[in-house]
Amino acid sequence: MGWVTGHSSIVYGPLSHAAAIVLYEGAPDYPTVERWWDIIEKYGVSIFYTSPTAIRMFMRHGEDHLLKHDFSSLELLGSVGEPINPEAWQWYYKNIGQERCPIVDTWWQTETGGTMLSPTPGIEPIPLKPGSATFPLPGIDAAILDTDGNEAPLGTTGYLIIRKPWPGMLLDVYGDPQRYKDSYWSRFPGAYYTGDFAMRDEDGYFWLLGRADEVLKVAGHRIGTAELEDAVVDHPAVTEAAVASKPDEVKGEAIVLFVTLKQGITPSEGLKKEIGTHLREVIGPIATPDEVNFVDALPKTRSGKIMRRVLKAVATGQSLGDLTTLENEASVEEIKKAYEGLKQE
User: Fold this and answer.
1) 292 has which bridge partners?
2) Which one of 79, 162, 166, 344 is most buried, counting C-beta atoms within 10 A?
3) From CA 39, how far away is CA 99, in angstroms rounded?
4) Angle at which helices 269-282 and 225-233 cross, to 10°
5) Per DSSP, what are the bridge partners of residue 35?
6) CA nearest 225: which of 298, 176, 162, 171?
7) Is-contact 264 257, C-beta < 8 A?
């Protein structure tokens, strides 16, 4: 309930519209991987709102378990929490929405107090693009700037900012007004700095590429972790991927991959090389990973976000830091053991 999705999307928003809300306790895949589908079918759920991380988890289990369930009550699908890669979007649209439910892929922050970028099906229908949050909502003046504060050309990555005030925006950091100014208003004076990396395509659609502090600098080239992860997940053997980095004397930073595989796929050195080759072909030689690590699960917060800083700490031997928001501490121990075993080999 500490995030805006918890108190506003799940409680205040639906109640203010007299909408019924379905809440449950526990994990999405316990006691079975069909728990969510049972709930949707039993209660006739019409709007299903989840995270890309959860979608990729279910992709790992295939489609057979979905065929047992009736999804005809669904009218609208939502995605929130992190950028959704096109492969997960397509799987979600086809298998859960049965190619009839629009996907509302939203971008916002707890600090913004509400959704900022989002499709608006039923109000202003526009063609959806798998993986894009489409356009700013009415009244939201969003732009993408380069490092010098100039508007980035279409097709190039940059920093997402908001140029004008909006209803619901944060007004301060409690007890620390200087931190408020430094964090949100100093990077690009006169504009709200979101801290996210993004791009607009030739049609003006916005594509979120992850946190700006999750951008690697490899041999002078800036590469977003989301861009690398999307390319890895595009490989047919991969369900989920997270990118970290470690210092490199020549390149500055070296790419380290942590990958979960689809059920029935056996980890192998050959598959590691294949994934590396796939990255080279999709992005270019600069994206060649120094390491590919196969793991059973990635460390995530209770809201479903991958804790990439934990992976970086494992790769560099640094302190893991605060893990209070971690959903499953066993995932970190498993990754540490796998990584230490690789180093010993």
Assistant:
1) 257
2) 79
3) 20
4) 120
5) none
6) 298
7) no
Class (C level, CATH) for 142-209: mainly beta
> Could you tell me the residue ranges of all domains in the chain?
4-105, 142-209, 219-344
| Distances in whole angstroms, Cα of residue 120 to Cα of each of 9, 48, 79, 128, 241 | 16, 16, 13, 10, 30
State how far the Cα of 98 lies from the Cα of 206, in Å rounded to an integer. 25
Instruction: In whole angstroms, give the CA distance from residue 99 to residue 2.
Output: 33
Determine contact, residues 299/312, Cβ cutoff 8 Å.
no
Q: Which amino acid is at 340?
A: E
Q: Which of 129-143, 151-165, 221-235, 330-344 has the lowest mean pLDDT?
A: 330-344
4-105 CATH pick, 1.10.3300.10, 2.70.98.90, 3.40.50.980, 3.30.420.40: 3.40.50.980
Burial grade of 258 (CB within 10 A; 0-12, 13-18, 19 or more): buried
In this predicted structure, the answer to whether residue 325 has a pLDDT above a threshold of 70 is no
Report yes or no on whether pTM surpasses 0.90. no
Supply the pLDDT for residue 170.
Answer: 92
| pLDDT tens per residue across span 18-65 | 999 998 888 788 899 999 999 999 999 999 988 888 888 888 888 988
Rounded CA-CA distance 158/269 in Å is 36
